[in-house]
Amino acid sequence: MRPAARLLSGAGLAAALLLPTAVTAHPAPRPGPPVADGTKGQELPAMPSALDADAACTAPSRERARKQDWSRQRLDLDRTHGHGIGAGVTVALIDTGVAPDADGLDGRVTAEGAAAEDCVGHGTFLAGLIAGRDARLTGVAPGARILALRGTDTRGRADAALVAAAVRAATEAGADVIAVTVALPRRDKDLS
Fold this sequence. Notes:
With about 190 residues, the protein is α/β, with parallel strands linked by helices. It has a domain at about 5-20 and about 70-180: Rossmann fold (3-Layer(aba) Sandwich), CATH 3.40.50.200. The protein contains six helices and four strands; from the N terminus they run H-H-H-H-E-E-H-E-H-E. It has helices at about 5-10, 10-20, 70-75, 75-80, 120-130, 160-170; strands at about 90-95, 110, 145-150, 175-180. The chain has a four-stranded parallel sheet with strand order 2-3-1-4, sandwiched between helices.
């Protein structure tokens, strides 16, 4: 296994530690978890995983991270990045789509058709966690490229047929890692 691939194998752990709980559109913000220095974490807007039919698209947050939260400190990304940053690795992200021009993704997103639109914002958020590059906070694999594929409708409702088609497309594209980050309500024979 290449060193970069080993680094990205920890992406599942990172996603589990960094993802907020799935919420409906427009919930009240909750306080963040404590950070390693014992102070309260940043309070950022809640991130929906799906939108109600009448909800407006999620706008990009104007809030900027001021420091690493406890989960990123626990992953020790600064030290981990010394072993590899995912350079040369393509991560297929099957979610709500990814906005290719999002801050920190620096033209490293390939998204065609519906996958290039992200009304919910969830896929774009995850792309930043995986491969974002920022002066203060970086993703788990800031050298990786993202292949955005849609596994939901435009409102973020997961669809087994879309997920199955996206997995096939990721495989055909030769993605090194396939991250399926949508939850399906029941088993699907075709997807299995």
